[in-house]
Task: inverse folding
């Protein structure tokens, strides 16, 4: 369905000044969740004395920490692109699939780590559950899908 035909589905307050459908609040929460390793890096850097302990709690294997920064790159880019999506409508329209691909990669990576013998702690289970939910929501939410449609002026 073209973006200009969505106007009857959502109230006028759901559109920005450029006429684009705003992304749902949960989308921004999922982007933060996808960029969680970057958040942890900032948190560890801000609390210098406890920084090593914080990183050790979530990433006992430092190699996994550095690899964990990779899936946050598409989420960070989504923050940047979202503010200028009227300039790059095709890039914006494709970016939902980039985020879904990044989420699939994270899930596969986590399952491989678990298969290799990583213990399933409460934190690991919570993050795995969050990742499954994020993937499901990114792939199925109609409002989000509509927000990624290019806007027709």
Result:
């Amino acid at each position: 369905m073209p973006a200009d035909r969505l106007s009857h589905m959502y109230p006028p307050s759901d559109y920005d000044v450029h006429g684009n459908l705003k992304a749902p609040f949960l989308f921004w929460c999922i982007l933060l969740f996808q960029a969680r390793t970057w958040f942890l890096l900032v948190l560890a850097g801000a609390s210098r004395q406890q920084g090593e302990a914080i990183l050790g709690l979530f990433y006992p294997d430092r190699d996994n920490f550095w690899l964990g920064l990779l899936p946050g790159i598409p989420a960070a880019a989504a923050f940047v692109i979202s503010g200028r999506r009227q300039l790059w409508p095709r890039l914006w329209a494709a970016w939902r699939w980039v985020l879904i691909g990044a989420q699939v990669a994270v899930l596969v990576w986590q399952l491989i780590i678990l298969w290799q013998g990583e213990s399933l702690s409460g934190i690991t289970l919570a993050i795995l559950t969050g990742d499954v939910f994020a993937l499901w929501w990114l792939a199925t939410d109609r409002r989000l899908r509509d927000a990624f449609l290019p806007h027709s002026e």
Remarks:
- The chain has one domain: 3-147.
